Amino acid sequence: MMEFEKRGVPTVSFTAETFVRDARRSAESFGFGGLPLAVVPLPFTNQPPDAVCVEVDECIDDVIAGLTKDVLPTKAHQEIVTVSDEWLTIKGDSELEALEEMNRLFLEYGWGDGFPLRAPDERSIARILKGTTRSPDDIVAVLEPGFGKATVEKIAVNALMAGCRPEHLPVVIAAVECLAEPKMYLRNKAMSTGPHAPLIWVNGPIAKRAGINSGVCALGPGAMSYANSVIGRAVRLCMMNIGLTYAGISDMDTIGSPTKYSMCVAENQQASPWAPYHVDHGYDAGVSTVSVHFVYGICELHDFTNYQPSRLVDVFATAANNAAQLSTGLWLIGRRADPRYGTEEKEHHTMFICPEHANNFHKAGWGKEEIRKAMYAKARMSFEMIMLAKERKAMEAAHPELQWLWDSPETMLPVVEDPDCYEIVVVGGAAGRGAFFWGAGEPGTKEVTDIGGES
Amino acid sequence: MSIINIRNPIAELVEQKIEPARRSSDLNGKRIGLYWNMKGGGDVALAHLEELLRRRYPSSRFTHYQGTVGFIMRHCTPADANRIAKEVDAIVGTTSD
User: Fold this and answer.
1) Whose CB has fewer CB within 10 Å in chain A, the N or C terminal residue?
2) What does pTM read for this prediction?
């Protein structure tokens, strides 16, 4: 609606009570404090038509007022604590008590993820910055929805708070660069009512240097996944304190997800029979990369029985066939799109294939391409099932040429747009158990170019 | 007493600014757009709103719109917004969930 205001057209937005804070804060962050709202008690979604009409009846005066009365601008980020001092002084009877006080204060301000934070003091910051060759003042990206400048130093401060060491910093910086790619449509994923969480995987020499686990328990928890845990956590803290993605204020996730705390692995290149992920995407094997894919959730890919590729795919495809998952068959109602940048994303899924299964495929002569094609052929659902929780009119708008499907609801359709919508990464230890991540849009990959001297 | 000096983790923000459109005090005779983002129920709400507004402002004209890109939420492209802005004097949307 702000695009219309920009063009001189007065607007009013219907908003459910539960989204009022989010709507106001979003508008403020985009420079339009005072966005006129017509507030209804409940979202229109999942309501019978009669109930929707009653809600409209009761706020008709707000609609008219919003279109006819002057907008009173409000200050941006009113609900977010931003302190202008670049250095904060914390006192306690001992250093440990001062640290406790810092943690109490940061939680009060909303700057923490709920777990204890490390203190970003001058000496620690200077040390972690040795992990990168970049200048502390370099602006790596501007992160939405708050439009925060992600300088190397601010990333380092948040990485330090998460528990990162200098050798982890270049990975966090590259992940932040991924987040800010226009195609990532960060605003949508950060602010959604869904559990979009950044899944990070690392390729190349940086993985070993940074101590990122690619094998048993790579997604954690545990000491062997220390680097994984703190890097993933650092990315979340950057989303919060740089991008201003705060739970209940700008992140309106209906239930939330433990995956939002941290999800980072290295590809198990040593145990993989195939070329690494980054080589498939045009990078030299000696280059290090970080990939980020926002995902909704995880399903296990368990199979201790089969060794034949087609049987394994039969099993894996059942994970993709899930009508309750938003991304399933989403192509039927369009693509995730950010009109500001003209980007469109297909819905991709990421598959962490365990080395055991990868070697089964390889021995039978299958590469990733064969798996993708087989998944595309096998992971299919009837049109009727795919559309169970999707808006008919959206399908009509997205695919007018496919309206015949309403008369043939049993038609089986692929749950993704094309075979390349399956991302394949080899991860894990020695057992026939992988992981399937329902994705939200496409992953992004960035090269790590700024590895510093200290490790 | 111990003191620790720590760096503020919050980033400097790039300020954004949009000026609100000028409002007219009367909607009579105005062209009113009704924009649906395609989330369930929004179309019902806007159709009902049109009925209510027609009763109050019989000389007003109403046009329904939806975005041309997106999925569960459909958005306007800049070209859509330019076109719609020329066709309406005010617009109501089901856009904030």
Assistant:
1) C
2) 0.93
